[in-house]
Amino acid sequence: MAAPIQKLASFARNVFSRMNSDVNFHDKLKHLRTMINGISAKDVGFDIEDLKKSETYGRDEVAPVTYVHLWEDETFSMGIFVVKPGGRLPLHDHPGMYGFCKVIHGEMMVRSFNVIKNSEQTEMPYEIKSKLKLWQMPQTKQVKLNTESVVTGNDECCVLNPAIGNIHEIKPVNGTTAFLDILAPPYDHQQMGSRECHYYEDLSCGSGDLRWLSLINQPTDFWCDALEYEGPKIDLPPLSPKSSRK
């Protein structure tokens, strides 16, 4: 009998390899979300003690975030992010992508924003303009707060799509947190394509829902090391041209 994580990977492949042509795509997304909600640390062989042991030996500086690679192909990527106290996944986007984050250890604070179309953005206020150089203006966008909440393993997974919750940041609460992360299609760093990850700084003052975000370089306090996946084997057949999402 296939392990839950194998079933999840197989269904994710099925969903996202046909995302541009399947009339049942959104119904399948709902089922995928239900499957992700059922995944636990045990299902992916994650043990926080293994991480602590890996950090005990031979390291002068421990990375604030550890990534455990589970799977990646052209349709989706799946892995585990482990964010340690004081670490974070800084404010970043997922261009044209769908994403699911399921906490499997600890708690995390998630703050996410909805993308506002250029035609619907309001005029940039002076207090924001005054913080920017002229060349930064086109790289600054208005967004609307989608959610700001603490998420635990008892909660449903966080979901983002190309318009809703697409820009987010994640911080641990009360110790280390870990979450299963699925992105579809994955970032295309290797090809320098349209799905590169961009980082942002929130320039807005106060606590209003409408915010102005300015494009920045990857923050220097964010980097990842890697931990080997110890869970059940994930085995998917090669993609055929007909099943490609393209």
UniProtKB/TrEMBL annotation:
UniProt KW Oxidoreductase keyword: yes
Alphabetized UniProt keyword annotations: Iron, Metal-binding, Oxidoreductase
Any coiled-coil regions, as ranges: none
Superkingdom classification of source: Eukaryota
InterPro entries: PCO/ADO, RmlC-like_jellyroll, RmlC_Cupin_sf
GO CC terms: mitochondrion
Molecular function via GO: metal ion binding; oxidoreductase activity, acting on single donors with incorporation of molecular oxygen, incorporation of two atoms of oxygen
One Pfam family matching this protein: PCO_ADO
Keyword Transmembrane annotated: no
Designated name of the protein: 2-aminoethanethiol dioxygenase
Species per Swiss-Prot/TrEMBL record: Patella caerulea
